[in-house]
Amino acid sequence: MSEILAGRVAIITGAGGGLGAAHARVFASQGCAVVVNDINTAAAQSVVDEIISAGGKAVVNSSDITNYDDSLNAVKQAIDSFGDLHIVLNNAGVNRDRMFASMTEQEWDTIMAVHLKGHFCISSHAVHYWRGQSKEGKPVDARIINTTSGAGLQGSIGQSNYAAAKAGIAALTLNQAAELGRYNITANAMAPSARTGMTSAVPEMAERMAKPEDGSFDHFAPENVSNVLAWLGSAEAAHVTGKVFEAEGGRICICDGWRTTDGVDRGAAWAPAEIGEAMKELLAKETPAQKVWGT
Questions:
Q1: Is there a catalytic annotation at residue 183?
Q2: For 94-123, what is each residue's pLDDT tens digit?
Q3: Is residue 267 part of a domain?
């Protein structure tokens, strides 16, 4: 079977462990040269060593994804090490869970910095590189792959900061796809459901997502998600952009986003006292959203 990422170069953020490490290993196994980005240099080096031992290509990068200037070094390293860059996979993330009424400003700001700004910085520098190539008449076949979450798509009790950031990432993906297609850059997002360090820290999730001991299909193995992302990073996926996917086990689906309904229109202004009847009609015709996680 051919390697679908042969000759391609990717930066994967937060790739020192969990989902990011799985992404890096799968991408490398498909012929991709990988820049393993993580602020935990030792963890990133361990992933790189594993990839190289298996015959793949990888280097460590410890750029701070929340620092715009430092993020440029990840792009430079990809080009200096492997001669080009084709894929930015924004995976890095942290949690600062708290009920909204108790959340601190620092807990809010940390999540926004790592998730939302973290999805901006390296991607911005990569887009400048790809746009420059396009303007010079060089062929571009580039990918931005973002990581959202069911928390951002449906909401999640105790995670208002995380949910808001992940919802922002989904909207960012739509904008990137609409704006960057002219340069042959696609943008898609993935809401993964898999076993990670974050899920393992929650006892009930750790139990539910545990690896089966009988050798049967490992439904929550992170590689199940990584395989989908490898295809999205390949040349075969050049026609797919502006999509938000979910992957869990052997299931892949597209998340259907916000849509404007037909509504209620009287062709004239509503008086405040009349809105109640209009609202009854609107709500009666509504297709309910998926429930918020934790409710």
A1: no
A2: 989 999 999 999 999 999 999 999 999 999
A3: no
Please name the amino acid found at residue 160: S
pTM equals 0.93
Total domains, the chain? 1
Q: Which of 29, 63, 123, 149 is catalytic?
A: 149
Q: What residues contact residue 108 under an 8 Å CB cut-off, 6+ apart?
A: 96, 161
Catalytic residue among 71, 160, 162, 226: 162
Query: What is the CATH classification number for the domain harbouring 19?
Result: 3.40.50.720
3-state SS, residue 186 = strand
What range does the domain containing 171 cover?
A: 9-254
pLDDT value at 203 more than 70 = no
Reply yes or no on whether 138 is catalytic. no
Beta bridge partners of 254: 245
Instruction: Please give the structure tokens belonging to residue 184.
Output: 């042959």
Residue 143 lies in a domain: yes
Distance CA 35, CA 14 (A): 11
Alpha-carbon gap, residue 141 to 152, rounded angstroms: 29
Query: Which CA distances in Å does 190 have to 4, 148, 160, 199, 231?
Result: 19, 6, 19, 17, 12
pLDDT given for residue 10 in this prediction: 98
Is 286 inside a domain boundary? Answer: no
CA dist 11 and 24 (Å) reads: 9
pLDDT value of residue 139: 96
% residues pLDDT > 90 (the chain): 80
Q: How far is CA 241 from CA 128, 190, 250, 259, in A?
A: 19, 12, 22, 18
Of residues 123, 156, 160, 166, which has the active-site annotation? 166
Report how far residue 256's alpha carbon sits from residue 244's, in angstroms, rounded to the nearest whole number: 8
CB 14 within 8 A of CB 88: no
Is 135 one of the catalytic residues?
no
**pLDDT at position 101:** 97
Interatomic CA distance for residues 277 and 89, integer angstroms: 48
